[in-house]
Structures are given as C-alpha cells and as structure tokens.
Amino acid sequence: MERVKILTIEHLTHDVLKIVTEKPATLSYHPGQAVDISINKPKWEQELRAFTFTSLPADKHLEFTIKTYPSHNGVTQQLLLLNKGDELLVHDVFGDIAYKGEGIFIAGGAGVTPFIAILKQLEKENKIGNNKLIFANKTASDIILGDKFRQLLGNNFINILSDEKIANFEHGYISADLIKQKITEHTQYFYLCGPEPMMQAVERHLSSLGITDSFIVKEAF
Ligand SMILES: Cc1cc2nc3c(=O)[nH]c(=O)nc-3n(C[C@H](O)[C@H](O)[C@H](O)COP(=O)(O)OP(=O)(O)OC[C@H]3O[C@@H](n4cnc5c(N)ncnc54)[C@H](O)[C@@H]3O)c2cc1C
C-alpha cells in the first residue's frame, strides 16, 4: 500500500471527478486496469473501492475519473470533500480489461473509464484505426469526455441516451440491432464495461448475434 497526495481535483461533469495524484515509483499497470483506493482519513483507510487508471502507464502522475454517489454515504461521497494536498491510499492493481485488437467498445456511464485509458494509449501509438465506442448514458449531461471521444473517433463515437431525446443521438437502451449496425469487417472484439444489468443485456445481444465469449472482453462495475 502506498500513500499519494492529490495534485488536482476537478469536476468533469455534474457528478464525475477527475483526480490527479502522485505516482508511487514502483507502481505499474496496463491501460484498462484498476486499483483499490481508500482515503487516508480516520475511519476511511479500510474502505477500499476499485477505480480505473485513466492516466497512461508512462505518465508521471496517476489520474482517476470517478462518478460520485452522494446518496450512498460511501467513499465517492467523501471524495467530493477532498482538496489538493489530501491523501489517498493506493492498494492492489487488478482488472480483466486489456486491448486485444480492433472492435467495438460498449460502455455504460462510468464504465467508460477503462476505455478512456485504452483509447488514449491507442491515440499515442497512432492506432485508433476503426475502433468504435457505443456510450450509454441517461442524459447528455452525463457523458464523460464527449469532446475527446468525438475528436478521437469522429463518427465511430456513438451516443445512446435512455432519458433524453436529442438529434443525432440514439435513444433508449443498447439493442442487438444497434450493435449489429455498427459491426464491420474490422470488428473483431467486443469490449464491455458498465453496471451489471446493462452488461447482462448486452451479453444477451452479443450472443443473439452469434458472438462467442472468446471475442468478448468485459468487466462489471
Ligand atoms: C474493476 C472496477 C473498476 C472501477 N473503476 C471505476 C472508475 O474508474 N470510476 C468510477 O466512477 N467507478 C469505478 N468503479 C465503480 C466504483 O468502484 C464504485 O462506484 C464505488 O465503489 C462506489 O463507492 P461508494 O463507496 O461511493 O458507494 P457504494 O460502495 O456503492 O455504497 C456505499 C454504501 O451506500 C449504500 N448504498 C449502495 N447503493 C445505494 C443506493 N443505490 N442508494 C442508496 N444507498 C446505497 C450501501 O449501504 C453501501 O454500503 C469500478 C469498479 C470496478 C469493480
């Protein structure tokens, strides 16, 4: 376990924080992985929660992109009270998501965080290629880093909103038909990350499209 100071803490959306911290010298990870974090304050050191690195392994600092739930009275509510100079405790690194090849990234809400890291790494290596991102949110105000994804992916960035109807955005929940429309000869892998009910629905859709598990890379949040 390592102690790191918060260098910057800011809002990316109404409920999502970007937190940049010091990086322990010995820490290593790959894009898509997460780490257990706790807050270095009395009564909070033992409350571990998983957060994905949205920085890249070669970066000098760590960055996290964290959706906060003030009503849970949990760790993310406490994160909202932190300032520059406060400390986090960084525990074990883990995570099942890693880039294997071109495909479609399918994210719900904060489930986009592993794909932020992977797409930033691909951008750095000039390998964005034909990758696509289908990003499901409740409303447009919930979209994390929309401008960045638009710049990286252009028309291969597909937004779907369940609670809001907006021109050029899909409306409703991710369907088998929407996924099918986006599949091309370049689509090899399907990367899934989001809340459990969304994951279950998308896995059913993929199965109905004849996609086998060996082409699905996933992690539930
Ligand atoms: C591998 C992995 C990587 C992750 N990476 C990220 C990431 O990069 N960014 C991100 O934003 N999230 C990420 N998550 C999700 C993140 O870990 C959780 O959102 C976070 O743990 C929530 O912590 P919390 O203490 O605020 O709330 P919780 O632990 O969900 O809740 C705290 C307490 O609130 C109560 N509670 C729970 N649900 C409700 C509810 N609906 N209403 C009222 N009270 C409730 C319960 O008593 C609970 O004990 C990741 C998860 C995994 C597994």
What's a quick, concise take on this entry?
The protein has 221 residues and is of the alpha/beta class. The protein has helices at residues 75-79, 113-124, 146-153, 176-182, 196-208; strands at 2-11, 16-21, 34-39, 49-52, 62-67, 87-94, 103-108, 132-137, 157-161, 170-171, 189-194, 216-220. Helix content is 20%, strand content 32%.
The number of helices is 5
Helix content: 10-25%
Specify the structural class: alpha/beta
- Could you tell me the mean pLDDT? 97
Count of folded domains: 2
Oligomer: single chain
Give the strand order of the largest sheet, numbering strands 1, 2, ... along the chain.
4-3-6-1-2-5
> How many DSSP-defined strands?
12
Rg (C-alpha, Å): 17 Å
Element string (H = helix, E = strand): EEEEEHEEHEHEEHEHE
Gross geometry: globular
- Distinct small molecules: flavin-adenine dinucleotide
Distance between the termini: 22 Å
- At CATH level 2, the architecture of the largest domain is 3-Layer(aba) Sandwich
CATH superfamily of the largest domain, by name, is Nucleotide-binding domain of ferredoxin-NADP reductase (FNR) module
Say what the CATH topology of the largest domain is: Rossmann fold
Beta-strand level of the residues, as a percent range? Answer: 25-35%
Q: Indicate the CATH class of the largest domain.
A: Alpha Beta
How would you sum up the major sheet?
Answer: 6 strands, antiparallel
Low-confidence parts lasting 5 or more residues at pLDDT below 50? none
